[in-house]
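sorry for the late reply, my laptop died twice this morning and i had to redo everyting from scratch. anyway the thing you sent over, i finally got around to it. pasting the sequence first so we're on the same page, its 445 residues, then the predicted structure underneath. double check i copied it right bc i was rushing
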Amino acid sequence: MPLDPTTLEQLVGFYAKRAPMAAPEVARALAISGVDAGTDAPSAWRALLLAADARGRVGDLAAAVSRGLPNDEKAKDIARQLAGPVPLDLTRLCSAAIQKSASDIHLKVGLNPVFRIHGQLVPQLEFPVIVNESLGTALWGIMSEHQRKRFQETNDCDLAYSVADLARFRCNVFRQQGKIGAVLRAIPSKVKTIDDLQLPATLKDIAQEARGMVLVTGATGSGKSTTLAAIIEEINRTHSHHILTIEDPTEFIFTDQKSVINQREVGVDSAEFHSALRAALRQDPDVIFIGELRDLETVEIALQAAETGHLLLGTLHTIDAHETINRLLGFFEPHQQAQIRLQLGSVLKAVISQRLVPAVGGGRAAAIEIMRNNGTVYECIVDGRRTREIRDHIRKGRANYGMQTFDQHIFDLIKAERITQDDGMRAANNPDELMLKITGLSDDD
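ok and here's the structure:
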């Protein structure tokens, strides 16, 4: 940015007093000739600054003066201010996030980078305060042409960013208050198994389903993608299937084992999400994974896939099975919902809902509700007057069907000393009933 007249005169006044010491270093650094700094210091410095400004070298000039005045803190401060924004080193930033076990990186202009570590936002003061220019340059550099165009049109964009031999990151770039912002979600380079994550063994049974719909639900940041990746890895490890994933962007990268896995990224491998999902039905899949049931068209195609003999895996931002069914119905007009209830009752195999609870010793543990479709649950899905009964049937279906409520699983986690009682109580749906069970006053399982 060109020097404004006020800044120019302030610099002239400051540097002119220091010309005898600094001028030789300046002359060597910039090779600006025709200026005699020893005769009329103000006019000489004005000429130097204007010449440097015309070449875009004011920052270099200030740095040269600072080297010529090694003990002058004011000269150093001016050099720092005129040096321009410090480039944002995304590789170093992502490396630090992985080293600190951060799940997310928040980048906002005017703040130091912020990591989410074990659920808490922690400013990273060892990194400089972010400026709009450096953040924009760094993010623009990791976008494809398609993503840049989308960002220019919509002011937000999803993409994947990889750091070699470290990890992948799901990145959302957006604008807020006219400035650029971004959040990067760390995705482990290795897909963890159900056992690695210490998830309920029932998930292995669910992974054996040959057809139908399995949904993993929860709030943003609750680990849905990690759990679904573990289920896909279980299928990959135990079945000879064709698994097709459609995501925006692709998160976990799988290695073929018994299965053949094709992973399509919207904007890279397919122009549109819906067209990729429709095409999937013609690509001989056994299992289709879609990142999110995001709209009516996606839900309609997902139901069609599940009805025609495929296993459809997907996610929803809902907190439990009861809300999940209502959310799916909500995509349709009221006059369609009776028919959709019949379809859901026929194809919905399981709803896995989860929330993360601070774990003893650091990290977080997944508390999971599991609903599996049986005769009674089918009736509750089909009959809207009985849908609210599903929670009770989940509680009663643990022994025979592997179902469990949040509170049942939270009790298990407390008993296994994976989470504290206080954290378990805060995460419970019904803390009073959970306390009765913890104290032995209730044996309700």
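Residues 5-82 form one domain.
thats about all i looked at so far, will dig more tmrw
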